[in-house]
Amino acid sequence: MARAFLGLGSNLGDGVANLNRALQLLREFVGDVQAVSDFVTSEPWGYASEHRFTNAVCAVETALPPMQLLDMTQHIERQMGRTHKHAPGESYTDRIIDIDILTYADVRMQNERLTLPHPLIEQRDFVKYPMQDCIKKLSE
Known about the structure:
Radius of gyration: 14 Å
Number of strands: 7
CATH class: Alpha Beta
Number of domains: 1
Shape: globular
Largest sheet: 5 strands, antiparallel
Strand content: 25-35%
Oligomer: single chain
CATH topology: Alpha-Beta Plaits
CATH superfamily: 7,8-Dihydro-6-hydroxymethylpterin-pyrophosphokinase HPPK
Structural class: alpha+beta
Distance between the termini: 21 Å
Number of helices: 3
């Protein structure tokens, strides 16, 4: 088993309901969700949109290795109605749900599909501060 921190975001529809649904599916398909940060709202990052994001970070204990975890998070995104995942070089778009693997235990890796730890954690306040909150909740 390994602990992974996942970033969740939604800016289409009911963001709170979308994040809660994603957390339910993570419990069902990925593992034990051990802690969830408070939900925060943020402006879109990396593109212009009139839709604000609802964001959170969760800690999950999983038996899935990193690439299978990525496949499962993308399966959950599709199950919730996400139809397009941007490719490198493409601009970001509004989305019903986005699930990013931020860290996976102490794994460091990089391939065409996944970089661990996520390279933009420190640049994104909507990830950095919820992650700190999630870590704090784990220790309570």
